[in-house]
Amino acid sequence: MLIALLTDFGYKDGFVGTLKGVIKSINPSVDIIDISHGVSSFNILEGALILNSSYRYFPKYTIFVVVVDPGVGSDRKAIVVKTKNYIFVAPDNGVLSLALEGEDVEKIISVENPKFFLKADNNTFHGRDIFAPVAAYISRGVDLDLLGKKINKIKKLELPPVKESENQIVGQIIMFDKFGNAITNIKKLPTSIKRAWINDIRIEKIAKNFQEGNSEKPSLIKGSFGFYEVFLKENSAKDKLNLKVGDTVKIEL
């Protein structure tokens, strides 16, 4: 059995190690893999995008623990979602919704049974006290129905819409990767385009690989997140072009 972790915890404070310690204390034989702990703090959309781009490459029946949880301690639900191929443990804040669009959901549980939690004198670390132990108990074969009650839906996270007309496609930047590439919300483009801009900066071309780009002038490429990205060859488009989330990408057809 495999548990995969995705959080915005970073590595400074020991939070990631604590999750692993809790899991191993409950199930010493389970394997643990880190997807990432570098999600921008509180950025649910970024967490959802990273999960969506990575989960399907894991073995069947992997348990994903996703903790990007700015609402920790509030009335937001803790949920377990079982699909045909995987199990997801996370807060009900939309962080699972992109991944679940591509999955056959079989069961959703609102986690409520304290028997499977750690006892704590605070309400600020549900990754440690709820999500990690619940995932560990699931890896030991605990029936999901013992964790809480079935629910029919979870919170959806909507991507900003792409605006399309006969002659134009307008999207926007939704996140940046570690290299400073600007991931947009545009999934599809025609084989040929007339012109393209990021803000008021002309985009040179659509590249097939990063080496076809230019280190000073931006290009577009279909990236591993499943969206088109604005990039500079071996350079940070974010820093060099002073880009930010929400900036407009305009394509003339």
Structure description:
With about 250 residues, the chain is of the alpha+beta class. The protein has two domains: about 1-150, 3-Layer(aba) Sandwich (Rossmann fold); about 165-250, Bacterial fluorinating enzyme like (Elongation Factor Tu (Ef-tu), domain 3), CATH 2.40.30. About 20% of the residues lie in helices and about 30% in strands. The protein has five helices and 15 strands. The strands form two sheets. Strands 8, 9, 10, 11, 12, 13, 14 and 15 form an eight-stranded antiparallel beta sheet that branches. The longest helix has 14 residues, at about 125-140. It starts with a strand and ends with a strand.
Architecture of the largest domain, CATH level 2?
3-Layer(aba) Sandwich
Order of helices and strands: EHEHEEEHEHEEEEEEEEHE
Tell me the β content: 25-35%
Question: How many structural domains in the coordinates?
Answer: 2
Q: Distance between termini?
A: 49 Å
Low-confidence stretches: none
At CATH level 3, the topology of the largest domain is: Rossmann fold
Globally, the shape reads: elongated
Mean pLDDT: 96
How many strand elements?
15
CATH homologous superfamily name of the largest domain? S-adenosyl-l-methionine hydroxide adenosyltransferase, N-terminal
Number of helical segments with 4 or more residues:
5
Task: Provide the fold topology.
Layout: E1 2-7, H1 15-26, E2 31-36, H2 44-54, E3 63-67, E4 78-83, E5 87-91, H3 97-100, E6 105-111, H4 126-139, E7 148-150, E8 163-164, E9 168-176, E10 182-184, E11 195-198, E12 201-202, E13 219-222, E14 228-231, H5 237-240, E15 248-252
Parallel strand pairs: 1-2, 1-3, 3-5
Antiparallel strand pairs: 4-5, 4-6, 6-7, 8-9, 9-10, 9-15, 10-14, 11-12, 11-15, 13-14
Helix pairs in contact: 1-4
